[in-house]
């Protein structure tokens, strides 16, 4: 580090002793709030908090209104905005996706008729990714659980790829003491080799002319510039230069012809981070129109679709799918591309899960409550106070003193949390068991109000 930082090394060591800043990114699909807080300068929806609250005790986090994300990582926004035409319908891959920081960010930046595949190789982590994607509620994301090598089956499919690679985590040292204990030169070598393998495996799936955003949360050159230089040598690829504002404090690097961007804690408000943007050489080929194939996705029956279609706004813009009793919806223009992903990968979650249909019995699903396209007017709603909302999220039975036999959409500060079914004066709690808050509620509830701060 001393060699990389020269005279800045002392300040760097000092910064490592300080508490890292806390930052969040708002979901523009769920709120138009502009909190009066300092902004993350490279990300339109990013804000720094003055202190770290107990996020678990804020219902709006569970509703997908914002995501707690380290600020440096939000820099991928500049790569997308500066080198990609985000108005166009794109196929986007987030290869190493869990827990979902970059995936939820990408989903907010691409157009609604773009298809995003968010992947995670470790199954338990893939479920966490699916949960966070469902909470974000964009509706155009498929979550897959595949090894990078499986993506070779989707040759030249993606316009944009994010590889936020597993790394030796030097940039996390002040946040995660365990990372210090696990660091060794041998581990850096292993990480660098694994990153090269991941890049080789996934490269075929990028279209010629497509863009790869590579990032790590480590500083050594082996896992960063050297890996990208290696990729450029192996394949037809060039790194792209981004425009930086001096006040951002980002350190550009140029090593072996590679343009890289480094985040050091004494110069930028964020954790350690590295990013490079690579364009694949070659000219994109016209997509061949293949003969009519057998689809893997099955359309919902007309009758079933009619029962639920007014549960989304602009239902005509969606294609309605059915697997078993579950009906889900995807933006209609994405049907063919989504089917191709289903043919080749293991898909855990797709679009928005709307309802379970059993004869005439209908059950709205959690994905619908959290969808950015939910048509609230189709439901009876009830607003909860903080304690009621937290008890609901703990999956406790709550009573609102109402009577009836309807499905109720429960909200906090006008943002949907999930469903409850009234049975007389009782209310059954349909919040997903796996997502419930496990923490005991404190005697005194905190009043964290990000959206009105
Ligand atoms: C830095 S984390 C990703 C963080 C995520 N992009 C975000 O913004 O929330 C790296 C991810 O790579 C996954 N991973 C580990 N080994 C991998 C491998 N061999 N191939 C692909 N992904 C791997 C890890 O499970 C982890 O979720």
UniProtKB/TrEMBL annotation:
BP GO annotations: methylation
Ordered alphabetically, the record's keywords are: Cytoplasm, Methyltransferase, RNA-binding, S-adenosyl-L-methionine, Transferase
SUPFAM superfamilies the UniProt entry points to: S-adenosyl-L-methionine-dependent methyltransferases
Molecular-function GO terms, alphabetical: methyltransferase activity
Q: Which CDD domains match?
A: AdoMet_MTases (cd02440)
Q: Where does S-adenosyl-L-methionine bind?
A: 120, 147, 164
InterPro entries assigned? Methyltr_RsmF_N, MeTrfase_RsmB-F_NOP2_cat, MeTrfase_RsmB-F_NOP2_dom, Nol1_Nop2_Fmu_2, RCMT, SAM-dependent_MTases_sf
Coiled-coil ranges from the UniProt annotation: none
Active site per the UniProt annotation: 217
Q: Which residues form the SAM-dependent MTase RsmB/NOP-type domain?
A: 1-281
Family to which the UniProt record says this protein belongs: Belongs to the class I-like SAM-binding methyltransferase superfamily. RsmB/NOP family.
Report what the protein is called.
rRNA methyltransferase
């Amino acid at each position: 580090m001393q060699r990389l930082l020269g005279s800045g090394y002392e300040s760097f060591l000092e910064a490592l002793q300080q508490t890292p800043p806390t930052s969040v990114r708002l979901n523009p699909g769920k709120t138009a709030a502009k909190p009066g807080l300092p902004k993350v300068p490279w990300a339109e929806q990013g804000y720094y908090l003055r202190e770290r609250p107990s996020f678990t005790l804020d219902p709006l986090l569970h509703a997908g209104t914002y995501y707690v994300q380290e600020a440096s990582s939000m820099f991928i926004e500049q790569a997308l905005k500066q080198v990609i035409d985000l108005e166009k319908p794109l196929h986007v891959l987030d290869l190493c996706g869990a827990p979902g920081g970059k995936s939820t960010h990408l989903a907010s930046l691409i157009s609604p008729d773009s298809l995003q595949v968010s992947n995670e190789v470790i199954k338990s982590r893939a479920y966490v990714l699916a949960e966070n994607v469902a909470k974000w509620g964009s509706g155009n994301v498929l979550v897959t659980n595949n090894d990078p090598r499986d993506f070779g089956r989707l040759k030249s499919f993606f316009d944009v790829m994010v590889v936020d690679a597993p790394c030796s985590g030097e940039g996390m040292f002040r946040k995660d003491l365990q990372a210090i204990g696990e660091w060794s030169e041998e581990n850096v070598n292993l990480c660098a080799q694994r990153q090269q393998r991941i890049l080789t495996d996934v490269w075929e799936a990028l279209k010629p002319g497509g863009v790869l955003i590579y990032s790590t949360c480590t500083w050594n050159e082996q896992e960063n510039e050297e890996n990208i230089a290696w990729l450029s040598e192996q394949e037809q690829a060039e790194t792209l230069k981004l425009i930086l504002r001096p006040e951002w404090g980002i350190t550009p690097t140029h090593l072996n012809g590679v343009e890289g961007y480094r985040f050091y804690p004494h110069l930028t408000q964020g954790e350690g981070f590295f990013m490079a943007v690579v364009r694949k050489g070659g000219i994109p080929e016209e997509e061949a129109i293949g003969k009519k194939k057998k689809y893997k996705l099955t359309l919902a029956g007309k009758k079933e679709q009619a029962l639920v279609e007014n549960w989304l706004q602009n239902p005509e813009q969606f294609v309605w799918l059915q697997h078993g009793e579950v009906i889900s919806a995807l933006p209609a223009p994405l049907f063919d591309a989504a089917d191709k992903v289903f043919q080749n990968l293991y898909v855990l979650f797709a679009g928005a899960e709307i309802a379970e249909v059993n004869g005439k019995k209908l059950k709205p699903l959690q994905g619908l409550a959290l969808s950015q396209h939910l048509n609230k007017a189709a439901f009876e709603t009830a607003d909860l106070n903080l304690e009621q909302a937290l008890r609901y999220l703990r999956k406790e039975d709550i009573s609102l003193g109402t009577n009836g036999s309807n499905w109720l959409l429960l909200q906090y500060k006008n943002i949907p949390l999930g469903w409850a079914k009234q049975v007389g004066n009782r209310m059954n709690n349909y919040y997903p068991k796996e997502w419930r808050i496990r923490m005991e509620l404190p005697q005194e509830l905190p009043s964290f109000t990000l959206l009105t701060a």
